[in-house]
Amino acid sequence: MRTSTLLLWLMTLLAALFTTVPTLAAQCDGPANPATGETWQGWGNGYGNNRHVADGLGSADLPTMQLKWAFGFPGVSSVVGNPVVHGNVIYIGVDSGEVYALDIDSACVYWTFKADAGVRTAPALAQVTGNTLLFFGDRNANVYAVSATTGALVWKTEVDSHPAAILTGSPQFVQLDSVDNPARLIVPVSSSEEGVAAVPTYNCCSFRGSVVSLDAMNGSKLWQTFTIQSPVAPTSDNTQGPSGGAIWSAPTIDPGNKRLFVTTGDAYSAPAAFGTDAVMGLDLVEGRILWINQGTSDDIWTVACMRPNAADDCGPDQDYGSPAMLASANGGDFLVAGQKSGWVRAFSLAGGTMLWRTALVENTTEFGGKIIWGGAHDGNNAYFGLGSGGIAALRLSDGNKQWFTPLAATAGRERNLGHDGPLTVSSDIVISGGWDGILRILDSNDGKVLWQYDTATAFATVNGIDAKGGSMGAAGPVVVGKRLLVPSGYVGVKGGIAGNALLLFSP
C-alpha cells in the first residue's frame, strides 16, 4: 500500500461530509465526439502553459453572464482536477478516482472511468495511430490512456515505484517529427513524502522528483530524469538524502527545438540539493538536463517543520508550485515563472540565464505561499495572483509592474484570503477564483474588478447530487469561446472552504 500524506487523510475525512447516495446523471445519447469545436488543451491550454484565450469571453459579454448549470461530484471535498474541453466534451478527474466525460451544453454523462486513486491532473487528449486517446495520472503514480470516445482502458503504466510517488502535475503529449521519435507523453512526478515526514517514526527521506517520457502508443518508459542527480544515501543524522525536488506542475514544451522545462519543489533533507526550488531545462528526446537555475538555495521543508520542535534548518517553503510559461518579447522567446517566495523571473530558453526579476511582495525571504498554482499571460502582460491577497500585472518585455489590485476576502471569510489558484486571461479580462469562494473578473488593462460571483453556496445540480462551491485552488477557470467553466471547492493545506461543484457560465 502506498504512503499517504496527512493532507490526503484530512481530505478523505472531509469527503465524508459530502458523500451522498449518487443519483444517476442523465446519460448522453451516443458516444463522445471531441473531434470538432473549440478546445482548452491540458492544464495551461497548450505547450506554453500561458492559460490564454485570444478571442474568447470578454468584458462586453459580462453584463449578461449567468450560471447555466452546476454539476456535483459525489464523495469529494475538493475539485482539484483542471478540466479540459474538446468540442462539445468536458473531461475532468476528481479525488475519488473518477474521470468524467460530460456534454458541455447539458452536462449529461458520456462515460466515467475509475482510476486506482484520486485524479488531480488535467487530462491530455491526442490522436495516436488513428485513435483519440485521453491521458491522465493518479495519486498512485499511474498514468492511463483511455479512449476519449468510450472511456475504455488502452494502457496503464506506473511511472515511479517509490511508495510516496504521486502525480499532481498534468502530462503533456508531444508528437515529434521523426519515426525514430515516437509520440510521447511527458509526465512530472511529485510526492506525498513531504507530508509523511511529519510522522515521527518515518525514516525520512528518499524520494527524488523526476520527469518521465512514455511512448504514447503503449505506455512503455523511454526515459526518466531525476531533478536531483546524486543517489539517495544515509546521512549523519539518521535520515536519508539528498531528497525532494518534486515536480508539482505541468511541464512546458518547446517542440521546435526539442526542449522541455519543469519547475521543482523544496528539499526534504539537508543539505538542499541543487535541483530543488529551481527552473530546469531538459532535452526532450533523451531527457538530458541542459541547465538549472535555482531560486532558493537552502530550502529544506516538510510538514514536520510545522511542529513546535522543528529542526533549526527548516527553510521557508518556497517551491515553484506552478509551471513556467513560454513567452515572446524583444524579438525572442523566453520563460516566465512565479515562485512561492513572491519573485517572478524570466529566463532564456537555451541556457537558463535570468533576464529580469520582479518581487510582488515586500518580504521575499519569509514563509512561502505567495505565488502558488500559477499565472497567465496574453503576450503583453503576465498576471499573477497572490496567496497573501491581490492580483498583479507585469510587462513581459521587462517585468515592470503595470498594476496591482489589492483584494480583501469577503466579509465573514477573512481567514480565506488570497488568490492561490491559477489565473486565466481571455480577450481583455483576467479571471481568478478566490480562496474565499468568490469568482472575480478583472479588466486586463487596469485591474478594475468588472464582475464577481459567490460560488461558496449550495447549487441545484443537473445530476441530482448535493453540491456546493468553496475555495478555488489547484484547478483554475477554463474558457472555451464565450463559455466559462469553473471548478469550485478546495481544502488544501490552508484549510480552505470545501466544495464539490463544477459550474458553467455564459452570456
Description:
With 507 residues, the chain is mainly beta. A 5-stranded antiparallel β-sheet has the order 1-4-5-6-7, with no helix packed on it. Strands 2-31-32-33-34 form a 5-stranded mixed β-sheet, with no helix packed on it. Strands 12, 13, 14, 15 and 16 form a 5-stranded antiparallel β-sheet that branches. A hairpin with a 5-residue loop joins strand 25 (343-348) and strand 26. The radius of gyration is 21 Å and the shape is globular. The relative contact order is 0.15. The model is unreliable at 3-23 (pLDDT under 50).
CATH class: Mainly Beta
For this structure, the quaternary state is single chain
Low-confidence stretches: 3-23
Q: What name is given to the CATH topology?
A: Methanol Dehydrogenase, Chain A
User: Count of helical segments?
Assistant: 2
The number of E-state strands comes to 39
What is the topological layout?
Elements: H1 6-18, E1 39-40, E2 52-53, E3 66-72, E4 84-86, E5 89-93, E6 98-103, E7 109-114, E8 124-128, E9 131-137, E10 142-147, E11 153-158, E12 165-166, E13 172-174, E14 184-191, H2 193-196, E15 210-215, E16 221-226, E17 233-234, E18 240-241, E19 252-254, E20 259-263, E21 278-283, E22 289-294, E23 325-329, E24 332-338, E25 343-348, E26 354-359, E27 376-377, E28 381-385, E29 391-395, E30 401-405, E31 424-426, E32 429-433, E33 438-443, E34 449-454, E35 458-459, E36 467-468, E37 478-480, E38 483-488, E39 501-506
Parallel strand pairs: 2-31
Antiparallel strand pairs: 1-4, 3-39, 4-5, 5-6, 6-7, 8-9, 9-10, 10-11, 12-14, 13-14, 14-15, 15-16, 17-18, 19-20, 20-21, 21-22, 23-24, 24-25, 25-26, 27-28, 28-29, 29-30, 31-32, 32-33, 33-34, 35-36, 37-38, 38-39
